[in-house]
Amino acid sequence: MRSDDGTENSVIEPLHTFLRSSHNDENAGVGCFAIGRSTANQRIEAYWSQFVKDGPGWWMNFFKDLSDLGLFNGSDPVHQECIRFCFMQILRNELHQVAELWNQHQIASSKFGNSSGPRGRPDCMFFLPHLYNSEDYKLPVDLHEIEEFIHESTMCPADLVKSLRNLP
Q1: pLDDT(58) > 80
Q2: What does the pLDDT read at residue 159?
Q3: Do 126 and 99 contact (CB within 8 A), yes or no?
Q4: What is the Cα–Cα distance from 120 to 114, expressed in whole angstroms?
Q5: What is the C-alpha to C-alpha distance for residues 11 and 131, in angstroms, rounded to an integer?
Q6: Pairing mode of beta strands 34-35, 2-3
Q7: What would the 3-class secondary structure string for the chain be?
Q8: Has this prediction a pTM greater than 0.85?
Q9: Torsion of CA 159, 161, 162, 163, to 10 degrees
Q10: 20-40 burial by CB neighbour count: b if 16+ within 10 A, else e?
Q11: Confidence of residue 34 (pLDDT cuts 50, 70, 90)
């Protein structure tokens, strides 16, 4: 996988590397993820910029306002967990809606005459690659590895979640 060095990839890289660590091909493990410039990703970068401005940008400003008003301290773990507890489901729902829209939109051909790029709906291209003269590149992942990654990377301790749920 090739990616730029954007903040959105700080979780994707270790996750992808971890899940590919038990495969036996030449791109397994640390060789599965490369960071470089995103000069060929102008469409997605433009979309991402608009997406942040329209959606997460509002939330980023909201949390900054809470911080500016002294109502939230981003370095305080209790404050972080309270914010997660209160807003995580809302944020997840919004992100799932965006993912659905993106995965069902039509990728059009380039206006610059590059006819070699992919065209179609991302969901269809992923689940039905043979219809696009491609192949299925998915590799199996052990369920225990997924559980291990979740356990190792979960930010919110279970006992804190339990305590937060019992608050009056």
Answers
A1: yes
A2: 56
A3: no
A4: 15
A5: 32
A6: parallel
A7: CEECCCHHHCCHHHHHHHHCCCCCCCCCHHHHCEECCCCCCHHHHHHHHHHHHHCHHHHHHHHHHHHHCCCCCCCCHHHHHHHHHHHHHHHHHHHHHHHHHHHHCCECCCCCCCCCCCCECHHHHHHCHHHHCCCCCCCCCCHHHHHHHHHHHCCCCHHHHHHHHCCC
A8: no
A9: 90
A10: beeeeeeeeeeebbeeeeeee
A11: confident
Measure the CA angle with vertex 12, ends 3 and 103; round to 5°.
Answer: 80
Residue 27 tokens read as: 């791109």
Residue type, 22: S
> What confidence score (pLDDT) does residue 146 get?
79
Residue 63 token pair: 């949390």
Cβ–Cβ under 8 Å, residues 18 and 149: yes
Percentage of the chain modeled with pLDDT above 70? 81
Nearest to 90 by CA among 53, 62, 50: 62
- Residue positions counted in the chain: 168
